[in-house]
Amino acid sequence: MGIKTKFKRFFDLEDDYEYEDDYEEEAMPEEEITPSHTKKGKPNVVSLQSIQQQVKVVLVEPRVYAEAQDIADQLKNRRAVVMNLQRIPHDQAKRIVDFLSGTVYAIGGDIQKLGPNTFLCTPENVDVSGTISEMMEED
């Protein structure tokens, strides 16, 4: 049995081809044709989700430190987070940034300051290019 016939049987396409006998190919051992593994044992089946996955950006404005865990969960779910820390006391804002810096480091992501009290936290699947310069306000 040729390799084409085996693929046709696997994908239920055998009825679609009438000229099957015209193109017989050399038979291969059964273990080398398994559809989910290559000869080296690496999977060759790719999930459609990993090919085209829509990246979501979540906007948050925490009011208490306890919301830092919810933000970290968003990052673990591979969502970028833009965080506005203007409505939280400065000491709690620093604690949130420290907590999220550790989370971002653990997942291989990045954290960037966009402006005063505004940060962008991204997981490893989001690549951010460019920079925003911080302009000093003169009184």
Task: Provide keyphrases for this structure.
single chain, 4-stranded mixed beta sheet, alpha+beta, 139 residues, 14% strand
Describe the protein's architecture and organization.
It is elongated and about 70 Å long. The protein has helices spanning 3-10, 48-51, 68-76, 90-107, and strands at residues 57-60, 80-84, 110-115, 118-122. Residues 30-34 have low confidence and may be disordered. The chain is of the alpha+beta class and 139 residues long.
- Ends: how far apart? 84 Å
Please state the structural category: alpha+beta
Largest sheet: 4 strands, mixed
Question: How does the overall form come out from the CA principal axes?
Answer: elongated
Low-confidence residue ranges: 30-34
Q: Could you state the order of secondary-structure elements as H and E?
A: HHEHEHEE
Instruction: Name the average pLDDT.
Output: 76
Number of helices: 4
Fraction of residues in helix? 25-40%
Number of strand segments: 4
Radius of gyration, taken over Cα atoms and rounded to an integer in Å: 26 Å
> How much strand?
5-15%
Order of neighbouring strands in the sheet with most strands: 1-2-4-3
Give a quick precis of the structure.
This protein has 139 residues and is of the alpha+beta class. The chain contains four helices and four strands.
What is the strand and helix layout of this fold?
Elements: H1 3-10, H2 48-51, E1 57-60, H3 68-76, E2 80-84, H4 90-107, E3 110-115, E4 118-122
Parallel strand pairs: 1-2
Antiparallel strand pairs: 2-4, 3-4
Helix pairs in contact: 3-4
